Design the sequence.
């Protein structure tokens, strides 16, 4: 059994394959020199910090479950600060309570925040009296929000949140794929505001029932964490997983790319890049690579899936980690950071106050800030040199936060074409890809291009791919 791709989806697939009573011989091939994909932990000014995702969702169980299996669950930590800000209308404003991916369920909270203009707030209130919006198939997040709340809410609240998660644009992102909770609310009745309030009430009641059943219903109890990470870095989770795989007999090769894939009566033949050695023969293959690489590999063996994968667009993001002297920051940082709406016209899309968000990201006399730039169809950041990019983002941070000095150290990480865009109709496309792949025995696909870009979703994708090929081939030969 060969897993192509050593990101978290591919490693999770290999881990799942090891769960059987008679696990097959497993080989993981990774083209780059390291494992983890977009999970990357680095160092700046003497402290460890993330250069890719800095946490994973706790309420989606698959990341927590994997950490439990790796005996890392009790080491996970949650953010020290829970609220964030929006750089809106000339200053940082605290994000209002009651947002669902930026969509308000409490217009009073939005009014108090000052995040949008009064005219935009008045337009949003019309949701309560407007006739029902005709609902057809999949729609974009932006289309749903504009129809009920208007463009102001979409551009200043929703787009920075849902667009920021996917490095995309809310007017292009599929609601079914990226915001199913919002999609369900929009289909449940005439008023989106009332539907979101009903969802929130149902969720609160369910949480109270669970807490009461567990015997923990004390008044004022802290809510469960939304995000979790490992204080040694998420790369530590990847490294622990790789070590456990190797200890269980899984062979892992980095710096070994696959350039060709073919199938015959003997099984699968994998052609390796120069220096990778002779072609390999396998009973089954899991392709856990980004969409473009998967399309190239699947072209000869599953052209229908390859064609659909090739149609998925991607965006690029630059992450700039900055270390400032403490006196450069005019006051204490009391949140996780801030988002930057597109109408602000800035290069930066978001800033994370890493040393406020995570207590373990610290060094004496230093404050650590991570700025992000780049979104779908905006390649400005990728076209700047490292020096230009650091200078531009520092200037914007100084304007938003009042920073008094330039950073002492910086580190630029570029993620070119790394964020698949879940366009309208994405889930139908994935259904077609998976159906085509299912018609080829001994083949499965996994990764962030399909049913979720977050770490838990990628773990689930890998584990499901492993189960699919195992079910197809009950008796695997080595």
Sequence:
């Amino acid at each position: 059994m060969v897993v192509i791709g050593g990101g978290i989806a591919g490693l999770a697939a290999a881990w799942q394959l090891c769960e059987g009573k008679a696990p097959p011989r497993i080989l993981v091939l990774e083209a780059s020199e390291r494992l983890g994909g977009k999970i990357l932990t680095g160092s700046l000014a003497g402290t460890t910090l993330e250069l890719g995702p800095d946490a994973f969702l706790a309420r989606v169980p698959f990341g927590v479950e994997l950490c439990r299996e790796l005996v890392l669950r009790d080491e996970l930590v949650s953010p020290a600060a829970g609220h964030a800000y929006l750089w809106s209308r000339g200053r940082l404003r605290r994000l209002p309570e009651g947002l669902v991916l930026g969509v308000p369920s409490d217009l009073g909270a939005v009014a108090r925040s000052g995040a949008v203009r009064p005219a935009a707030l008045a337009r949003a209130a019309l949701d309560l009296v407007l006739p029902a919006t005709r609902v057809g198939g999949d729609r974009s997040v932006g289309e749903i929000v504009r129809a009920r709340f208007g463009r102001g809410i979409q551009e200043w609240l929703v787009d920075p949140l849902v667009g920021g998660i996917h490095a995309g644009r809310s007017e292009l992102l599929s609601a079914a794929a990226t915001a199913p909770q919002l999609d369900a609310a929009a289909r449940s009745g005439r008023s989106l505001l009332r539907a979101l309030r009903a969802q929130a009430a149902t969720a609160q009641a369910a949480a109270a029932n669970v807490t009461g059943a567990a015997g923990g219903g004390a008044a004022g109890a802290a809510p469960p964490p939304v995000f979790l990470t490992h204080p040694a870095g998420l790369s530590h989770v990847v490294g622990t997983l790789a070590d456990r795989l190797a200890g269980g007999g899984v062979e892992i090769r980095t710096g070994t790319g696959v350039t060709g894939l073919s199938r015959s009566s003997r099984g699968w033949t994998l052609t390796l890049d120069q220096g990778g050695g002779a072609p390999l023969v396998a009973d089954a293959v899991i392709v856990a690579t980004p969409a473009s690489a998967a399309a190239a590999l699947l072209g000869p063996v599953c052209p229908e899936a390859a064609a659909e994968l090739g149609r998925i667009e991607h965006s690029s993001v630059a992450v700039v980690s900055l270390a400032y002297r403490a006196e450069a920051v005019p006051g204490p940082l009391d949140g996780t950071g801030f988002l930057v709406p597109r109408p602000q016209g800035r290069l930066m899309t978001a800033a994370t106050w890493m040393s406020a968000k995570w207590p373990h990201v610290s060094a004496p006399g230093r404050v650590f800030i991570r700025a992000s730039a780049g979104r779908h169809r905006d390649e400005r950041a990728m076209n700047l040199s490292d020096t230009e990019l650091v200078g531009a983002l520092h200037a914007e941070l100084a304007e938003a936060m009042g920073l008094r000095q330039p950073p002492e150290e910086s580190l630029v990480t570029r993620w070119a074409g790394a964020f698949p865009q879940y366009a309208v109709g994405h889930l139908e496309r994935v259904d077609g890809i998976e159906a085509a792949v299912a018609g080829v025995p001994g083949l499965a696909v996994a990764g962030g291009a399909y049913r979720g870009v977050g770490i838990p979703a990628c773990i689930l994708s890998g584990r499901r791919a492993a189960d699919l090929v195992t079910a197809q081939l009950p008796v695997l030969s080595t």
In short: The CA atoms of residues 270 and 384 lie 38 Å apart. The radius of gyration is 23 Å. The chain has three domains: 2-38+61-75+232-312+423-472, 87-213, 314-420. Residues 314-420 form a domain with the Polyamine Oxidase; Chain A, domain 2 fold (CATH 3.90.660.20).
